[in-house]
Structures are given as structure tokens and as C-alpha cells.
Amino acid sequence: MSSTSSTAAAAALPIVTSTFWLGTYGLLQLTLWLKIMTIRSVQPSSTHQLQNLAVTQDIRNLRATRAHGNYIENAPIFSLLLLVVDAMNVIPKTLVNGLGGLFFFGRIFHMMGMWAYEGSTVGRMVGALATLVSLGIGSGMTIYSAVQVLGGWSCVQVKFGVIALIVLLGNCFAGINVEKKKE
């Protein structure tokens, strides 16, 4: 592809930075899925059910399943945040790229730490911290981008007020139907 056509393609698609990272997240998802399938392929089919997993205490399978599940909890929302920040074109692309890389390598560390040992490992802790920071910064960048595009803070104060009210009400009512601990 010539530099002229690649420049034209980048101009037509302002989300090139996040698109690269979304592709790597897909490959990481595939890696996690393949790990589970590799472990399960050598087991009798009856051990694939979750109730039997707990009974058989197949630690490798449990760790692989947990690593996969944890990734699934975080990757979709982060991918959406990164895509929106990139598309809004308010944040410099180097920061968007850095954020995408932080999340990716955080998930790699977490995955390796989860596969290595049951319990706290340096990899899991580094990965969890990188994921937490990525989600926090990504959320902040998304809100900042929206505020800039809407014309400043005064245009979104009502939205933030409504969101704050929803969060407050959610926190007030979150524990109403929870059973009390027996003392």
C-alpha cells in the first residue's frame, strides 16, 4: 500500500489507533479461549460442566476459566471507552495509544499470573492495577472528550446531576433486600 493511500485511509477512518488495540484484544481473547479448549480437550466431557469442575478440583481448568472470565468482565467496556475516545479526536493519539497498550499489557500480566499459581502473584497484581488505572483513565478521557465536544462543562452539568442522583439512589437502595448476617 502506498503512503498516499494509507494516509487517505487514515483520514477517512479517525479511529485507527483504537482499531489496532481492539485487534490485539481479540487475539488475547482467542489466546484465553484456546487455553481453556486445550485443557478441556484431554478431559472427559463430564468434567466440562461447572458443577463437576468444582468437584474434581481441576486447578488448571479453573485458573484458565477464571482468567478468561476476568478478561471478559473488563475488555468490552474498555474497548468501547478506547474506541469512543479515539473517535472523538479530542485526546492526542499518543495518549490513546498509550492507554490501549497499558490495558493490553496489564491483561497479559494478569493472564500469566493467573495461569502460573492460584493466589496472589506479582503478575496478577500488576495486571489488576494496570486494568484499574486503564479503566479509570479511559473513563475520564471519555467524559473529558464529551465535555469538549459539547462545548464545556456548563452544557453537561444537568447530565452529571442526573447521573449523581442515579448513583446516590442506587447506593441507598442497594442493600435493602440483603439478608442480615447471623450474629
Task: Please outline what is shown here.
With about 180 residues, the protein is mainly α. Helix content is about 80%, strand content about 0%. Helix 4 packs parallel to helix 6 (about 120-150) and helix 5 (about 95-115) runs antiparallel to helix 6.
Features:
single chain, 183 residues, mainly alpha, 78% helix
Task: Kindly describe this structure.
There is one protein chain. The termini are far apart. The longest helix has 30 residues, at 59-88. With 183 residues, this protein is mainly α. It contains 7 helices and no strands. Helix 4 (59-88) packs antiparallel against helix 5 (93-116) and helix 4 (59-88) packs parallel to helix 6 (122-150). It has helices at 3-12, 16-41, 50-56, 59-88, 93-116, 122-150, 157-173.
Tell me how many strands there are: 0
The portion of residues assigned to helices is over 70%
State the distance separating the first and last CA atoms.
71 Å
The chain-level structural class is mainly alpha
Subunit organisation of the chains: single chain
Indicate the proportion of strand residues. under 5%
Number of helices: 7
What string, H for helix and E for strand, traces the elements in order? HHHHHHH
- Provide the gyration radius in Å: 21 Å
How do the helices and strands line up, and which of them pair or pack?
Blueprint (H helix, E strand, L loop, with lengths): L2 H10 L3 H26 L8 H7 L2 H30 L4 H24 L5 H29 L6 H17 L10
Helix pairs in contact: 2-4, 2-5, 4-5, 4-6, 5-6
